[in-house]
Each structure stands twice: as structure tokens, then as C-alpha cells.
Amino acid sequence: MAFPASISLPSDPFASKLLPLSRISVPAQITVKIELTQLISLRRSKCSSLKASMGSPGFTQQLNDKKLETLAEVKDGRDDIFNDLKDRFLSFKKNVYMKNAEQFESLAKVQVPKFMVIACADSRVCPSSILGFQPGEAFTIRNIANLVPTFETGPTEVNAALEFAVNTLLVENILVIGHSCCGGIRALMGMEDDGTTGFIKSWVVNAKNAKVKTKAVTSNLDFDDQCKHCEKVSINHTLVNLLSYPWIKEKVEKEELSIHGGYYDFTDCSFEKWTLDYRGTKLEENGRIATKDKVFWS
């Protein structure tokens, strides 16, 4: 059986170019023919699939119509959300703003809040909703796990807010509010010292001392209970971190500023509040933290 010296295959993406057959054996030549047949079949199959996916003009129109319907539903959903916000805003304007026009006129000129509130960014923990703060009453900053880095850590958004609230607005109280089921504390308790980094890990590490203290006294508890314990310990360590700012410590010493902790448990809607006892707190003695004026609201 004689074979030509070479076979020129059709020029398409699934076919080979020029296959020299003078160097291959008969079995290999047969393999070439088989592979060629398979390639052509594959090409036809793909082309058929492409045509099928393209569909008839009517089918294509149905797909386009469906796509437009989906986009319209998404847009309607967005519009509904913002229409709801619009209604809430207009209700606020009518029932709050317009009825207290003189108060809001004063607020437009100056703010003199008594509180600076440091709360978690968790959507379930809104200080104004929980404690009824009115406009002008609380200068608020929210972040993951309601943390405050130490003064030595360097500039952050929290540092800037503290400086403005304490030195410019002259707030008389700083209230740090933690809460139940805190995802930031859970991330802190579960993270490993494996060298990996990330925005959340780099932030919650500011509470590493709270994690160490919690682990030391809760080894007999399950992970969920350890996290709950750490949620409160972390608040006290944040209060201590506040004292690392010279201008905060000075005002606390002069009793011009008080530092408080608060814990909101939204599983049973209860709130605990306590005040840092600066005189009784001995930071040099293994960071012993003293509190006073503790109350429980339920």
C-alpha cells in the first residue's frame, strides 16, 4: 500500500498543517488519519454547538427580552430601596427637623457633644438606635470590633477622630461599646500566627492582649464562650489603650474626661455599662484594670 510523501490538511484551527509521512511507520500513518478524522469531527461538533447557541432569530430575541426583564427587576429593586430611604428622609424632615428647626439651626453653626462613642461597624449595633442619641449628642466612630490602637501604633482614622473629639470638641465622656456575636472578635480568637496578612487580621491584632488574657482563663470553655468572654475583655483593653494617648491620660487625671465601657447583648436586648477607675487601675502591675459604677439594663 503506497502513501503520499505528505498530506496537506485543510487550513482551520482544528487541523494540522503539513505532516511529513516519510519518517513515520505505517501504524503512525494510520494514527494520523484517525486523528485527522477526529479533529474534523470535533471541528464540526464545535461549529454545531456554536450554531445551536446562536439559535434562531426568535430564540435570540427571547434571550434578549429575558435579559432586559432581569435588568429591569434589578433596577426596580434598587429603586424600591432608595424610594424607601427617600420616604424615611422626608418623614425625618417633616416630623423631626421641621419641628425642631431652632435646634438644627444651632447645630448648623456648632456642635458640642458630651460623648465620643466608639462602636462596632456591625449593622446590628447602632448607638443612636440603642441609646437614643440625638443629633449633636455623640461624636461617633465605628470600626471592626470597636478597637482603638495604642498611641505608639501611629496615625489611623481612629487616632484622628480621638484627637478632634477630645482636643477640639472637648467631649467629657468616651464610651466604647462592644456587643454579642462580634465577628471581629471571632476573627481575632480564631486567627493563627502563621505569617499570613490581610486587612482584617492586621486590624484585629490591635486586641491581641485581650486574646492572650482570654485564652489564659477560658481554656475549659468552648470556642463560642471564649469569644463571648473576649468581647468584654477587649473593651477593657481598649480603655487601657486610650490611656496611651498623652492628652487623654492628662484629661482623665484631671477628671476632665471619663472613659466608659459598654456591652450590648442583642440576643436578649441587655446593656452593661461601667467606668474605668483610673486611680485603681495599675497598668504597671500586669495591666490590672479596675472599674466602677457598673450598671446593668435589661
From TrEMBL:
GO biological process: carbon utilization
One Pfam short name: Pro_CA
UniProt-listed SMART domains: Pro_CA (SM00947)
EC number: 4.2.1.1
Binding residues for Zn(2+): C120, D122, H179, C182
Cofactor remark from the record: Binds 1 zinc ion per subunit.
Keyword entries, A-Z: Lyase, Metal-binding, S-nitrosylation, Zinc
Entry-linked InterPro entries: Beta_CA_cladeB, Carbonic_anhydrase, Carbonic_anhydrase_CS, Carbonic_anhydrase_sf
Enzyme class: lyase
Source domain of life: Eukaryota
Residues of the signal peptide: none
Cofactor(s) needed: Zn(2+)
Catalyzed reactions per annotation: hydrogencarbonate + H(+) = CO2 + H2O
GO terms for MF: carbonate dehydratase activity; zinc ion binding
Family listed: Belongs to the beta-class carbonic anhydrase family.
Protein function: Reversible hydration of carbon dioxide.
Name of the featured protein: Carbonic anhydrase
